């Protein structure tokens, strides 16, 4: 019985130690260089939202910076962006850009930054295949896993 109690306590503590605290997630941006004929703006806007939602769900203590809040930074200078992140009470901020190079191949570029110093904590460049909702969800979960604990 004692082992079960110890295991339960450890199981509760381990996820907390492995997640980033106070992460501001800036709106995910898309760079579409695929030159596809069909306009996919609506689908991509939805998928950018999916990626942001997954990151917020997967990173404990995450706060999403909205497009309206981001509009306060014109131009988007480093100091202004870090100030927005500090205003949320976050210690870290994540900036994500997705590049679509073809129908099948997309890349995610993510930077995790210390909000106080502006120092780069972690940088991740990931590839994923499939321009559909599920592929973007999986990419978001994988990215969150990569970022968890990166600032420890």
What can you see in these coordinates?
This protein has a single domain, classed as Rossmann fold (3-Layer(aba) Sandwich). The protein contains five helices and six strands, in the order αββαβααβββα. It has helices at 2-17, 41-58, 67-70, 78-87, 133-147, and strands spanning 23-25, 29-32, 62-64, 92-100, 105-114, 120-129. Strands 1, 2, 3, 4, 5 and 6 form a six-stranded mixed sheet that branches. α2 (41-58) runs parallel beside α5 (133-147). Mean pLDDT is 87; it is low at 1-20. Keywords: Signal.
Give a brief outline of the structure.
With 152 residues, the chain is α/β, with parallel strands linked by helices. It has one domain: Rossmann fold (3-Layer(aba) Sandwich), CATH 3.40.50.
Main attributes of the structure:
152 residues, globular, 6 strands, six-stranded mixed β-sheet
Q: Mean pLDDT, rounded to whole units?
A: 87
Number of strands: 6
Specify the CATH class.
Alpha Beta
Bin the strand percentage: 25-35%
How many whole angstroms does the radius of gyration measure? 17 Å
Instruction: State the helical fraction.
Output: 40-55%
Whole-number count of domains:
1
CATH architecture: 3-Layer(aba) Sandwich
* Most strands sheet: 6 strands, mixed
**Basic shape:** globular
Q: Which structural class best describes the helix and strand composition?
A: alpha/beta
């Amino acid at each position: 019985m004692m082992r079960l109690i110890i295991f339960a306590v450890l199981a509760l503590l381990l996820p907390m130690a492995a997640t980033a605290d106070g992460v501001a997630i800036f709106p995910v941006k898309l760079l579409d260089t695929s030159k596809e004929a069909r306009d996919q703006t609506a689908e991509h806007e939805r998928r950018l939202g999916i990626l942001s939602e997954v990151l917020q769900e997967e990173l404990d203590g995450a706060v999403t910076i909205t497009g309206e809040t981001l509009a306060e930074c014109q131009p988007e200078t480093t100091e202004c962006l870090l100030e927005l992140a500090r205003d949320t009470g976050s210690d870290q901020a994540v900036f994500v850009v997705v590049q679509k190079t073809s129908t099948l191949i997309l890349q995610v570029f993510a930077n995790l930054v210390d909000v106080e110093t502006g120092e780069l904590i972690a940088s991740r460049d990931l590839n994923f295949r499939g321009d559909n909702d599920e592929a973007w969800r999986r990419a978001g979960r994988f990215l969150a896993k990569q970022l968890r604990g990166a600032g420890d």
